[in-house]
Amino acid sequence: MAGKITVDVVSDTVCPWCFIGKRRLESAIKRNPGRDFLVRWHPFQLNPNASAEGVNKLQYYKDKFGESRTAAMLPRMTETFAQEGLAYSMDGLTGNTLDSHRLIAAAGQQGPQVQDALVEELFSNYFTQGKYINDPEVLKAAGQKAGVTDSDAVVKDKDRLRAEVIEELQSFARGVTGVPYFIIDGKYALSGAQEPAAFEEAFARLA
């Protein structure tokens, strides 16, 4: 078996293309069964000044992109999600993602499998189930389902891992202009929700 490949993913939990990128990365990994992969998730905030209370998701899109552009975007996003076997929902609220990133960081301390399971659960909550992932109860439930043993304590303690996450946010904000952003073995970078073939090409270069 070839050596382990580390994939560092910079993403935001309210970024639809980050969920698509996760699926496409997973497809590429499945096509390389003879290799060992370590996937690690890192924080990014598309809107660091977003309200902690949350605002209507659809209205936020309309305010940000305009009525006509939003109307054009949503069918495309729905189709793209469907191609990856996912439903796309514009129900619910959107808002600040710092607490979700704190919980992801806590999950990472328990190992990559727990962290990846939490990222999957948060994406699913937000994009397919219309849940507000800054709601403490939603975060706690997602953490418990993913196997984060102290999710309740992390959610309640707003200072838990806050400084570490903010430091990492600031670090990536200096070099990453858009997400998802994939750093493969510290040697190759891919920006955006690339097709599986793009990941496979990078993996082949490391062979």
Automatic annotation (TrEMBL):
Q: Name one Pfam family in it.
A: DSBA
Q: Which residues form the DSBA-like thioredoxin domain?
A: 6-203
List the SUPFAM superfamilies hit by this protein, alphabetically.
Thioredoxin-like
- CDD domains named among the record's database cross-references: DsbA_FrnE
**Which InterPro entries does the annotation name?**
DSBA-like_thioredoxin_dom, Thioredoxin-like_sf
Superkingdom, natural source? Eukaryota
Task: Cite a single GO MF annotation.
Answer: oxidoreductase activity
Q: Which PANTHER family has this protein been placed in?
A: GLUTATHIONE S-TRANSFERASE KAPPA, THIOREDOXIN SUPERFAMILY PROTEIN
Q: What is this protein called?
A: DSBA-like thioredoxin domain-containing protein
